[in-house]
Design goal:
The complex is a heterotrimer of chains A (about 210), B (about 425) and C (about 550). Chain A has one domain (about 5-110, about 125-205): HORMA domain (Cell Cycle, Spindle Assembly Checkpoint Protein, Chain A). In chain A, a hairpin with a 2-residue loop joins strand 1 (about 40-45) and strand 2 (about 50-55). With about 210 residues, chain A is an alpha+beta fold. Helices cover about 30% and strands about 30% of the residues of chain A. Chain A contains four helices and nine strands; from the N terminus they run H-E-E-H-E-E-H-H-E-E-E-E-E. Chain B has 18 helices and one strand. With about 425 residues, chain B is mainly alpha-helical. The two termini of chain B are about 60 Å apart. Chain B has a domain at about 100-200: Alpha Horseshoe (Serine Threonine Protein Phosphatase 5, Tetratricopeptide repeat). In chain C, about 10% of the residues lie in helices and about 30% in strands. Chain C contains six helices and 29 strands. Chain C has helices spanning about 30-40, 50-55, 140-145, 150-160, 170-185, 535-545, and strands at about 195, 235, 250, 255-260, 265-270, 275-280, 285-290, 295-300, 305-310, 315-320, 330-335, 335-340, 345-350, 360-365, 370-375, 380-385, 390-395, 400-405, 410-415, 425-430, 435-440, 445-450, 455-460, 465-470, 475-480, 490-495, 500-505, 510-515, 520-525. Chains B and C meet through helix 8 and helix 10 of B and strand 2, strand 5, strand 10, strand 29 and helix 6 of C. Chain B: One of its GO terms (biological process) is mitotic spindle assembly checkpoint signaling.
């Protein structure tokens, strides 16, 4: 992996933390919005300048914590390219909704360089405020996505997947899997946010129940 | 897979999207709320035409479904007078109400379930469907009926409905069972109100009234089918009121006809009236809370009544963003010089100009015969001043007046000391003052 | 020599690809056992001159040449257990060409410079039966291996000759193109692997129902209920009104005139005299109308961002104020100040008396400003936006004093309480449905009501300690609530579609509502019991009706 010589390790860690946090809050929000767990299991906390909902159920909390720990390690090492939250109907086993977060590392791939329109040029640091604003907008969009997503009638469960590099360290709880994509989905691109080291795109794919 | 649609393309209109259970196509939302949303009328006419031609189709229901889906996509706000969704649903449901092979067709029953949402009296619709046998083999009907009953506090009746569905082996049974179990769990948590009315969920029709509600006898089928398609034309003037077309009820009062919303409620609803002549006087004295403001009046540019006057310049350049610019500003803008701050000129005039200390105390003495000037004597200064005090035609005068009024070191900039730089200075000043 | 050397399985078993008319190689070549047997032969040798080039094959992908061929020989694939690999397992159609190593037990054919082989270092032995593998270099026995009978071999061989010691890149490209072929055939990607967190997530402990099945709220006990007519007093026609939540197209002046905007025209109806007239018609659609506090002027916001001020008595436009770059969906007067909120989130304050009208900007909203209301003592301004926030501004500042993010949907309904100066009510949209009450001195939320439908406007009553809220999705109703008990007094299903705009009469007794069903209805909901000169009686007799649907 080519590392730009001026890359600051501290900066990568900080940025990875921001991204991991974002993933954690996003997963919580998705679980709430899509009704995977009952609304009573969630409570509001202040984050990113808005109220976001996080689970208070200890099992779910622990589950997400474990995932987050590994995600953070992978992010620091730059080993994952995508994070997927797949929502499956318990009855039919079909994937009904798929949330996809693309992780681009600044300066790593040439094709992402052209997408770096958000970050300021030439090492201007992005302020925390700006990043917070961007994440706030994404959270709002996740909340507002209910305006077009179908209501999940059946009980659903969720799975977390990552697209990892071939040389990524794989802890025992993770194993190879299929990509769990939806056939002929409707796809909606949400806003992106970027830190100095990462750029995250969010996309949701779903099936219209027609 | 088609390209993803940007949420931001329609996020600005999120409050105008009616919630639906089956979700919406983001692509069509982006199309409707984007910048290039097309006129709906031609497509609507096309659908109407296809409906007219559909009578000989194998499956005429499909074209109606396509039309309904198109209406839902094109008008995310739901049932409004522009979308004409409810009349369309009424027509579609009424048209096939007596067709036996549609009675348990999922698509047809789904259409009824959509219509129920907008009906004034959902309960009547459900019972009417039961009496016609529509949906009796489909779990969908029982689920929707039971859930409406539950929402409105009729839990015992909801229970009845689920049981009826299970008894009839409504398809898909497993799903119906699941829903029923969930319902039972909810009931266990919130037991039904004992004072709930005990009227049956599926009222049995007394023989004497059978002619009114009727069985499945076909007759006078669905009078609404012939209703003309166009929505009430949009009007600008208030004074004209155009009544919405209502199907002729007399032709279709046969059994099996439920009627449209409009028909059923016509005795309860006031019709809109034109404005003119209507009054609603205020019961309290009308006293403005504040004295009348004086609003700044813009000077109106009188419209030119010269014939064929054409403006040949691009007015948008002059009135860029509502602010008026003069031609010089426009010119500067086009060159990218507008607003440019020029560095102050190196004050060469100041550097070159010498400060002349007026030595009042020094004796002036007789003027030398030769007209050589030495700058350090008062007499010399006087000579110089005299020379340059000749008025050269107005302009000089003004600047000199200004300068005379100054009693500070700005004498340096006097036009009395004539350097080349002074000329430049002055011309600059002259330019600036015209702005 | 008989010791079995623990051969690291880095190099797969060698096997030969032979042309159909050559003799088949020894079968033992295809088993692992045979491999190790063979390797024992090599133990004797110590070094290998081609070790380096062979070591280039240490990555997982080395073994991925695909040869579609008519070879009849069985193939074996050898996968390195250490390295995670793309799964190319046992697909019969794919032949895997591994680095040729010491597959020959017969010593005769070992070529010249292989006496130096060490156990681990194999030399690709050239032989006429073994096609030259690209990248295995330093073998100059090429001519022997050239066999023109089969195409793939030929291509390999010819690619050999081109390159004595192929550089990394060409080897890479050939390998990667083959990789890609395989990957395409299998439908997998080589640049990443997909990992799933295996443990199942916790299951739901209980299974109650979702958004769409809310239980209906029990209605208020009769003792609290004031008798309110549930039928409109009057219904007027509003054809062509735009169906957009974010606009504010209806207002009632203190002079008892009602202004309504119907797409591109504004009509003014004088409720005293009954006369109605078209005030203006514009090129662009109208997005907001608001009467000034003195009832003499009407501010008209347009889709282009222009705000016009009209003198209604003279029926003339006094001025056009520019500056906003997107549509002005809401305006609000505060004596001579007119605040305009636009789609890009900017709020401009204009002093209408002077030429340079813009006196300040209040920019904070990240979405369209759809609600705007000045406090009656002019000290604070409240704004609501499509970014789901409520901003409370002090009059002369440009940053909000409080920004409230409790609403989960757009906030269009914003209303200050007439009897308690610092009490503000705000209502949220489709997926929020709440009315929140705020103390604007401290910023605290003091009360909340879950209304059950998208809130489109809130109006406080002057005569009763009550407020009325109008709604859109899904109930299209209006509700009257008592404050501060927050109990519902009455619920009236008002229109066939969303009640988008509402305004109170100057005497505070009648609410006018307008919806996209093109009806403008008047509801006598806050009837005052105070008598005044005869008019009261006339009005009352019209509307009391307990049978109320619409």
């Amino acid at each position: 992996m080519n590392k730009a010589p001026t890359r600051d390790r501290l900066s990568i860690r900080g940025s990875s933390k921001t991204v991991a946090e974002f993933f954690e809050y996003s997963i919580n929000t998705i679980l709430y919005q899509r009704g995977i767990y009952p609304a009573d299991d969630f409570q509001q906390v202040k984050k990113y300048g808005i109220n976001v909902l996080v689970t208070v159920d200890s099992e779910v909390k622990a589950y997400i914590r474990k995932i987050m720990g590994q995600l953070h390690k992978w992010l620091v090492g730059g080993k994952i390219q995508k994070l997927i939250v797949a929502i499956t109907s318990k009855e039919s086993g079909e994937v009904v909704e798929r949330w996809q977060f693309d992780i681009h590392i600044s300066g790593k791939d040439t094709d992402t360089a052209s997408k770096e329109t958000d970050t300021k040029t030439n090492g201007d640091k992005k302020s925390d405020d700006q990043i917070q604003q961007e994440i706030q907008a994404i959270m709002r969009q996740i909340t507002a996505s209910v305006s077009f997503l179908p209501v999940l009638e059946d009980e659903c469960t969720f799975n977390v997947l990552v697209y990892a590099e071939q040389d990524a360290p794989v802890p025992p709880e993770w194993a190879d899997s299929a990509n769990r994509e939806i056939k002929n989905p409707e796809q909606v691109q949400l806003r992106s946010f970027s830190t100095n080291e990462h750029k995250i795109d969010t996309l949701v794919a779903y099936k219209l129940d027609r | 897979m088609s390209a993803p649609v940007e949420f931001a393309a329609f996020e600005h209109a999120k409050e105008n999207i009616e919630p639906t259970r089956e979700g919406r196509s983001a692509a069509s939302l982006a199309a409707v709320f984007g910048n290039n949303s097309s006129d709906a009328e031609p497509e609507r006419q096309e659908f109407e035409q296809r409906i007219k031609d559909s009578d000989l189709d194998d499956d005429p229901l499909q074209i109606w479904l396509d039309y309904i889906n198109w209406t839902k996509d094109r008008y995310p706000q739901g049932a409004t007078s522009q979308s004409n969704l409810v009349p369309l649903l009424e027509r579609a449901t009424a048209k096939f109400v007596n067709v036996p092979h549609y009675k348990n067709d999922v698509r047809y029953v789904r259409t009824w379930m959509t219509y129920v949402k907008y009906a004034d009296t959902p309960r009547e619709v459900f019972t009417h469907l039961a009496s016609l046998g529509i949906g009796s083999q489909l779990a969908l009907y029982y689920e929707d009926y039971a859930s409406w009953l539950e929402t409105n506090g009729y839990k015992n009746k909801a229970n009845e409905v689920y049981q009826a569905g299970l008894d009839n082996n409504a398809h898909p049974v497993e799903r119906l069972q699941r829903r029923y179990h969930q319902f039972c769990e909810r009931c266990a948590a919130n037991p039904p109100d004992p004072s709930e009315s005990t009227s049956p969920a599926f009222p049995t029709v007394r023989p004497a009234l059978s002619s009114k509600f009727g069985g499945a006898l076909a007759s006078g089928g669905a009078g609404g089918a012939t209703e003309p398609a166009t929505a009430a034309p949009r009007k600008k003037k208030l004074s004209v009121f155009v009544d919405e077309e209502i199907p002729d009820t007399s032709a279709s009062s046969g059994p099996g006809y439920l009627g449209t919303n409009a028909v059923r409620r016509k005795e309860n609803v006031m019709q809109a009236t034109p404005w003119a002549g209507e009054t609603m006087p205020s019961s309290s004295a009308l006293k403005p809370a504040h004295p009348k403001l004086t609003v700044f009046r813009e000077v109106q540019v009188p419209k030119s009544d010269k014939k064929n006057e054409r403006i040949s310049i691009d007015m948008d350049l002059l009135y860029d963003g509502g602010i008026e610019f003069c031609l010089e500003e426009v010119y500067a803008k086009s060159r990218g010089l507008y607003g440019k701050k020029y560095n102050a000129r190196p004050a060469t005039p100041k550097a070159k100009t010498t400060t002349i200390m007026v030595k009042d105390s020094s004796p002036t003495g007789p003027r030398p015969a030769t007209p050589t000037m030495t700058l350090h004597t008062k007499g010399a200064m006087d000579d110089i001043y005299d020379m340059f005090n000749q008025p050269l035609g107005g302009q000089k005068h003004d600047t000199k007046q200004q300068n005379d009024d100054d009693n500070d070191d700005d004498d340096d900039d006097d036009d009395d000391i004539k350097d080349d730089s002074d000329l430049d200075n002055e011309s600059d000043q002259g330019m600036h003052s015209s702005y | 020599m008989s010791t079995k050397s623990p051969v690291t399985p880095r190099y797969g078993p060698a096997f030969s690809l032979t042309s159909p008319n050559s003799h088949p190689p020894h079968p033992h070549h295809y088993t692992k056992d045979s491999y190790s047997k063979d390797s024992s032969f090599l133990n004797a040798s110590n070094s290998c001159s081609i070790k380096n080039s062979l070591s280039d094959y240490s990555t997982a992908d080395y073994s991925s040449f695909s040869i579609k061929s008519d070879f009849s020989k069985p193939k074996s694939l050898f996968k390195s257990p250490k390295k995670p690999q793309s799964v190319i397992d046992s697909t019969p159609s794919i032949l895997q060409l591994n680095v040729v190593t010491n597959d020959w037990s017969s010593k005769t054919n070992i070529s010249n410079n292989n006496s130096q082989l060490s156990p681990k270092k194999k030399k690709a032995v050239t032989d006429r039966f073994i096609p030259k593998v690209v990248g295995v270099t330093k073998l100059d026995e090429r001519p022997e291996t050239r066999d023109t009978s089969s195409d793939p071999r030929e291509s390999l061989a010819s690619s050999d000759t081109a390159v004595k010691k192929p550089s990394n890149s060409s080897r890479e490209t050939l390998r990667s193109s083959h990789d890609r072929e395989i990957a395409d055939a299998c439908g997998i990607s080589l640049s990443h692997r997909i990992l799933e967190f295996q443990p199942a997530p916790p299951s739901r402990t209980h299974d109650l129902r979702s958004v769409y099945n809310r239980p209906v709220k029990p209605s208020v006990a009769a003792v609290n209920r004031r008798k309110v007519p549930t039928c409109p007093e009057r219904v007027l026609d509003a054809p062509g009104i735009l169906d957009d939540y974010y606009l504010n197209l209806l207002d009632w002046s203190c002079g008892n005139q009602v202004a309504v905007a119907l797409e591109k025209a504004v009509y003014v109806w004088n409720a005293e005299t009954g006369s109605v007239g078209e005030l203006l018609e514009s090129r662009d659609y109208i997005s907001s109308v608001k009467w000034s506090c003195d009832g003499a002027y009407l501010s008209v916001g347009l889709g282009s961002g222009e705000v016009q001020i009209w003198d209604v008595e003279e029926q003339t436009k006094l001025r056009s104020m520019f500056g906003q770059t997107s549509r002005v969906g809401v305006t609000c007067w505060d004596r001579h100040i007119l605040s305009s909120g636009s789609r890009d989130g900017h709020i401009f304050n204009h002093d209408v008396r002077i030429a340079q009208h813009k006196v300040s900007e209040m920019n904070h909203h990240q979405g369209e400003v759809c609600g705007l209301d000045w406090r009656s003592d002019s000290s604070q301004l409240a704004s609501g936006g499509n970014d789901n926030t409520v901003c409370i501004w002090d009059a002369r500042s440009t940053v909000p004093k409080f920004t409230k993010t409790n609403h989960k949907a757009a906030v269009k309904a914003v209303a200050w309480c007439p009897w308690q100066m610092n009490l503000l009510a705000t209502g949220g949209g489709t997926y929020d449905k709440y009315i929140h009450f705020w103390n604007t001195t401290t910023g605290a939320r003091v009360n909340s009501i879950d209304t059950g439908s998208q809130v489109t406007s809130i109006k406080w009553s002057q005569h009763y300690k009550e407020l009325v809220s109008t709604h859109g999705f899904p109930n299209n109703n209006l509700s009257i609530w008592s404050y501060p008990s927050c109990t519902k007094i009455v619920d009236v299903v008002a229109h066939d579609s969303r009640v988008l705009h509402a305004t109170l009469s100057p005497d505070g007794q009648t609410l006018a509502t307008c919806a996209s069903d093109e009806n403008l209805k008047f509801w006598k909901i806050f009837e005052s019991t105070k008598k005044s000169a005869g008019k009261e009686g006339v009005i009352q007799s019209k509307e009391i009706s307990t049978v109320g649907i619409r």
